[in-house]
Write a structure and sequence with these properties.
Strand order of the largest sheet of chain A: 2-3-1-4-5
Distance between the termini of chain B: 10 Å
Structural class of chain B: alpha/beta
Largest interface: A-B, 17 and 17 residues
Order of helices and strands of chain B: HEHEHEHEHEHEHEEHEH
CATH superfamily of the largest domain in chain B: Aspartate/ornithine carbamoyltransferase
Number of domains of chain A: 2
Distance between the termini of chain A: 37 Å
Number of strands of chain A: 9
Number of helices of chain A: 3
CATH class of the largest domain in chain B: Alpha Beta
Number of strands of chain B: 9
Radius of gyration of chain B: 19 Å
Order of helices and strands of chain A: HEHEEHEEEEEE
Largest sheet of chain B: 5 strands, parallel
Radius of gyration of chain A: 16 Å
CATH superfamily of the largest domain in chain A: Aspartate carbamoyltransferase regulatory subunit, N-terminal domain
Strand content of chain B: 5-15%
Structural class of chain A: alpha+beta
Number of domains of chain B: 2
Helix content of chain B: 25-40%
Helix content of chain A: 10-25%
Strand order of the largest sheet of chain B: 7-6-5-8-9
Oligomer: heterodimer
Shape of chain B: globular
Shape of chain A: elongated
CATH class of the largest domain in chain A: Alpha Beta
Chain lengths: 150, 302
């Protein structure tokens, strides 16, 4: 109940819940929140019944577009996105890893054209549970252990 | 296939691949024709090559076409720092088809997306070299009469050889039994083996090639490069295990043919060259017919 109150204390904005604790700062970096100008609350290593621990980010007057949600899904595949307007939860979604990923992560292959010329990366997601990204250009697989966000 | 770039072997279906092979057989009978008289083909080789570039240029020349291009990047504006995108857009204004070799992986796919004309990948680093695969399929069919149910041995560097990877994947359409001979360090990657497993085909792995030779229809040799070994002692130990000589061709199948993508260093002794099994120079010649077939199909002329 206490948690609910904290969430609903936002008048307008977004709550990103169920972020893996170790990836909270990654999510902040991906979403470029270092430069965020209004209220931003970060919690990490919080108790979670589902996942043991979790991180949470609350943002005033910030709403995400589709591409941003995709970015979150890669670093925090189980994250919940809660949209709040006038103190009310108006939308609650679990983020989903998309089938195709464009321009969010780097190809791990240093000899890939995307790492040599100014070519935006493009991947087909061939496995979501054990994350595997197939590069549209060099055809190599970038996986969980070598994923780097742009 | 008109207008359809060829970047990876799987860009063309099995049926499309067979159409190219059938057309190549026509060009083998009649390689000098005036089909490309009004066409300009650009050959952009950002790194050196003997067989691939010359066989493309021979293919075009024998069909009466004109060739523009460069044979290494130091003689182009790339040296001044021009991007691949700008080079390709420019050249696609000057030509009807681009043939490109570039050491950067994925460069061919990207180039085909910015080019106004179709593009044939003549090798993009360790990634793909689909025209080699087509000429290998053509050569296997030429020597065996068909592609189905063959026993094919691959010998040497199965880990890094893109030629081997693409050919294994292509042969998975033909109920092939694979015999994979390599040092432990240079085994076929599991990503390629997945294709074999997906089709429920059989493969055997060996470290010694002697037991394999009598069993197979095709012996596909490759070069083992010293720089692939982390331990140079290990290289010294294995390098002589994968050298084929005439004495090893005993108790073999009558139809056995030896292929090699070339260049060879010492993995096939020269005493093999004059045996009836040696087919690697013919294989390199077949590259001309297959490339003639491919170019004419893509330009919509056949």
């Amino acid at each position: 109940m206490v948690k609910e109150l904290k969430v609903s204390a936002l008048e307008n904005g977004t709550v990103i819940d169920h972020i893996p604790s170790e990836n909270v700062f990654q999510v902040i970096k991906i979403l470029n929140l270092e430069k965020f100008k209004t209220h931003l609350l970060i919690g990490t290593n919080l108790e979670s019944k589902k996942y043991g621990t979790k991180g949470i980010i609350k943002l005033s007057n910030k709403f995400f577009d589709k591409e941003d949600v995709n970015k979150i899904a890669l670093a925090a595949p189980n994250a919940t996105l809660i949209v709040i307007k006038d103190f009310r939860i108006i939308e609650k979604n679990t983020v989903r890893i998309p089938d195709k990923i464009e321009g969010i992560v780097k190809c791990f292959n240093p000899n890939c054209i995307t790492n040599i010329e100014q070519v935006p990366t493009k991947f087909e997601v061939i496995s979501k549970d054990d994350l595997k990204l197939h590069c549209h250009y060099c055809e190599k697989i970038t996986n969980k252990t070598n994923i780097v966000f742009i | 296939m008109k207008g359809k770039s060829l970047i990876s072997i799987n860009d063309y279906s099995k049926e499309e691949q067979i159409k190219i092979l059938d057309l190549a057989a026509e060009f083998e009978k009649n390689p000098v024709q005036n089909i490309l008289e009004k066409y300009v083909v650009a050959t952009l080789f950002f790194e050196p090559s003997t067989r691939t570039r010359l066989s493309f240029e021979s293919a075009v020349s024998r069909l009466g076409g004109k060739i523009i291009g460069f044979s290494d990047s130091s003689s182009s504006s790339v040296k001044k720092g021009e991007s691949l995108k700008d080079t390709i857009i420019t050249v696609s204004n000057y030509s009807d088809l681009i043939v490109m070799r570039n050491p950067v992986e994925g460069s061919a796919r990207y180039a085909s997306e910015v080019s106004k004309v179709p593009l044939i990948n003549a090798g993009d680093g360790a990634n793909q070299h689909p025209t080699q695969t087509l000429l290998d399929l053509y050569t296997i069919r030429q020597t065996q009469g068909n592609l189905d149910n063959l026993h094919v041995a691959f010998v040497g560097d199965l880990k890094y050889g893109r030629t081997v990877h693409s050919l294994v994947i292509a042969l998975c359409n033909y109920n092939t039994t694979f015999h994979l001979v390599s040092p432990i360090e240079l085994k076929l990657p599991s990503a390629v083996k997945m294709h074999i497993k997906d089709k429920n085909l059989t493969y055997f792995q060996y470290t010694d090639m002697n037991d394999v030779i009598p069993q197979v229809d095709i012996l596909y040799m490759t070069r083992i490069q010293k720089e692939r070994f982390s331990d140079s002692l290990e290289y010294e130990r294995v390098k002589n295990l994968y050298i084929l000589n005439k004495n090893m061709l005993k108790g073999i199948k009558e139809n056995l043919k030896i292929l090699h993508p070339m260049p060879r260093v010492n993995e096939i002794s020269t005493d093999v060259d004059n045996t009836p099994q040696a087919h690697y120079f013919q294989q390199a010649l077949n590259g001309v017919y297959v490339r003639q077939a491919l170019i004419c199909s893509i330009l919509g002329l056949k």
